[in-house]
Write the structure tokens for this entry.
Amino acid sequence: MRTMNALPRLSLIGTVVAAGLFLTGCGEDSKAAGPLILKTAFNQSEHNPQFKALEDFSQKLEAATGGKYKLEIHPNELLGDQRAALELVQSGAIQLAVVANPLVENFNKNFSVLAMPYIYDNPDHQRKVFTGDLLDGLFSSTKGNGFEVLTAYTAGARSMYIKGAPIKTPEDMKGKKIRVMQSDTMVKMLTCMGGTGVPMGQGEVYSAIQQGVLDGAENNEITYADLKQYEVAPHFSYTRHVMVADLLVVNESFLEKMDAADQATFRKLAKESTATEFDLFSQALETAKQTATAQGATFTEVDIAPFQARCKPLQETLLTTPEQKDIFNKIRALAN
């Protein structure tokens, strides 16, 4: 089931600028002088584990191809936000970008399965899915839209953190008002977990918890520590209800023009970069956890089985196609 929706067109100026960036690195003179530069859009900072995984991918690609290819990574939305970056990849103005999974859902709704509540038991389960070949067919389904998905990176597991006492069971969620992203699915997920989801911008969360408008929020350890939300919600419970996927996408025409050996190497190293990214993300999470713990936060492991059981009806309503159900069942089959 593929929908052929096109993303909104970039402005003419933006397209010309991006195309200029592309041409400066990809002409014949450039190839004679050095590696072919693969322009890569990234929306976060150079300290992010995904950025570091891309750097590692670039170094290994350059070495494996005898210096023929090298990634030039532009962090902090220098080439536009993720929607604009995907357009640039589609048009061939740049070769690569990391984009959020929901953007790719515009082309194939089956991608929504990757971010369903409680589809993964833990980060190791998600890693097994992302580093294997289970998703290869889904990733190649975007061909014909100007891009292909090379691999998936983790953006961490979202868990609950609140004031008062840690969440351990669905019963502990009763009456709790928890900030969620502005998403109907996230609101429904909080309901099935036993609490009340309150859609709210991230910038309002700290003061809302402080003032009693919220009892807590949900996110990963890095955001929790970076925004110092442990100061107002010191009890972090590993509910791991949603594990977000970000996707590394490549221009379809560029990929097709690579010779067979280089393309095989390119695909192999891109896939291997996922394991690298998981390792780097795990290290960053541990650092964030240490930072929060030093400031008085507590981290509690949770038996997620009761939460999964309560959210099963929601999962079933979100699986609307036979293809989605097949992907879901295959992912669940890899659970530990």
Residues 2 and 82 are 21 Å apart (CA to CA). The two ends are 30 Å apart (CA to CA).
